[in-house]
Description:
CATH architecture of the largest domain: Alpha Horseshoe
Number of helices: 8
Largest sheet: none
Radius of gyration: 22 Å
CATH class of the largest domain: Mainly Alpha
Number of strands: 0
Amino acid sequence: MTRTQFILFLSSLIVVLALAMGNLELKNFTYLGQNSPNMEEIEIAAKGGDADAQFQLGEHFRKLEQFADARDWYRTAAANQNKDAIFALGLMAWDGLGELQDPIKAVGWFQQAAKLDHAQAMLYLGKAHEKGIGTHRDQVIAFNWVEKAAQTGLAEAQY
């Protein structure tokens, strides 16, 4: 092996190791760009009144299909004005997750989340009014909600 080949080999090895380490580090970051706390830390923060942690616990239980626990944590976060939790409660009612499907209740949750500028809630309100699900059918109101969602940058609403 020549000196040049050896240097190329070492350089390649360094790049591969750096990429592998970077990939491992990325797995330890949340969408907020901070080190991901474990569930125990999230639960402590949630019980301490942190609305984002309360929402994260709700998401955790929803993914485990423990819908009653998910709903409880979403409600707690919603009481602290967490718009994602409010929207999640709407989705649970819309889809009938852990409860009977209730479009009227879902629309109520979507309205609350939309007041807090939740783009997906706005889009769902548009869909509800377009089809008359959970509310009266009104194409103008439907268009207005979808347009508001699109103005936030929500790609789904930009058609």
